[in-house]
Amino acid sequence: MPEGPSIVIIKEELQSFKGKKILQVEGNAKIELALMENKKIKDFKSWGKHFLICFDTFYLRIHLLMFGTYRINERKEADPRLLLKFKNSEFSFYTCSIKLIKGNPAESYDWDADIMSETWSHKKAVKKINSFANEQVCDVLLNQDIFAGVGNIIKNEVLFRTRIHPESVIGNLPRTRLNALVKDARDYSLQFYIWKKAFVLKKNWVIYKKLNCLKCKSKVTRAYCGKTKRLTCYCENCQKIY
DNA sequence: CCGGTTGTTCAGCG
DNA sequence: GCGCTGAACAACCG
Question: Which residues, in sequence order, are CB contacts of A116 under 8 Å at separation 6+?
């Protein structure tokens, strides 16, 4: 479920609940559920992999982690972490992290760092990346302070699309290559969103979990790269190391 | 059918 | 206090 584009899709699917009054709250989240009863949902927001349910004086921050799921007007068999019931409708979240945070999310996030945001800033991202000169590209792409919403699939695909070896060191990347990387992180995330909505995301993967390189047909290398040690699929032949 | 994983946090250690 | 490692969480897919 959980890379940035998928969170934007959740936000869209829940739009009809905006402004509606919550009649009943259930779930095993370790928060004070009663606080939401008889309150109206002010807004839904997303920042990277965070999904936010906003109320007047607080908001819920939901992170789906690896296995989180949700349902709208239907239930899973498992106990919901959070179930919000309305007059003739409901939605629920499962196996996720939920925090209740006081205040307004507008002030607590760097919105320009969200890869899916209308206000995404390429320039700010480049500036931040330059302070990680000794880090590997595969780690920096997963840094949520720089690329909020980019996950392991987007990382793999972007590195292949830009022909950059995952273990390249930031300080060695020519400026044009760094710009291409940042631009494609944004472009591919928007593409991921379109493909995901059309249920054709997986079939459009070009390197992630592929056996052979689509371009040169050589065997795709699989390794747990960088400090993050996340599965990385890449082509030794087509992706240049800097 | 069982191992791996679209993710993050935290304890424990040197 | 730092960086690093491993555990914990927990469910679905191939």
Answer: A4, A5, A7, A8, A46, A149, A189, A190, A193
- Taking only the tens place, the pLDDT of each residue in A164-183 is 999 999 999 999 999 999 99
Q: Report whether A41 contacts A53 (CB < 8 A).
A: yes
* Closest amino acid to nucleotide B5 (CA–C1'): A66
User: How far does the CA of A181 sit from the C1' of C14, in Å?
Assistant: 31
A200 touches strand C (CB under 7 A): no
Residue at minimum CA to C1' distance from nucleotide C14 = A209
Residue ranges of domains in chain A, CATH in brackets: 4-107 (3.20.190.10), 111-234 (1.10.8.50)
Beta bridge partners of A219: A212
